[in-house]
Specification:
6 helices; 212 residues; single chain; six-stranded antiparallel β-sheet; alpha+beta
Amino acid sequence: MAVRTKVEAIDRDIAVILSDTLSPAAQSKALAAFAGETIDAATRANRQVLGRDAPRTIYVDGRKGAPLASVKPDGVIVAEFDVVSDALAWIGEQIELHSPKASPDPNPDVVYKRSHELFADGIAVPIGEPVPSAEEYIFINTLPYARKIETGSSSQAPDGVFQAVATLGRRRFSKVARIAFSYRAAVSGAIVKGRAGNKSSGRYPAIVVKLR
């Protein structure tokens, strides 16, 4: 669940020039300096989005945590920033905060704000377990009255819940993820696709999150 910042050997035209003017050691030094500046810029950008530094892991020529200065002249430096976990946690918190406090269901054990689910690539993520890496994450609530709440039937959520949070999330995390309000079908811990998933009666409000 990481956003990658990848720095390879400097542009080929520049590399040709450097190869004639710099020693291999000097080329490595130049690449390391460029990578350091690029990673620092990505760190600042992520901090602006999240409000804090995102956890990061740096690989130098495939070696985790190796010094930038150890990069080969034609090497590759990759920095992975775990901003998706923060984005998902924030969206989950906002969905709960925007949820109506009172449940329209007569059964006291069925509470809308406790019935939100998260799916990673179509499979439900059990509460309390780490969120796995995936290409697509979906927040959904499949209670029968979830659609009515989304259309503003609740005075406590006149703008709906999922659509409102999707708009907020899109503004906050537009640089790291594509966030959209949609409708999805979910049965027995999995997102349903195809003809069955397209039946309007079985589709519920959802927020879809994809990495950029």
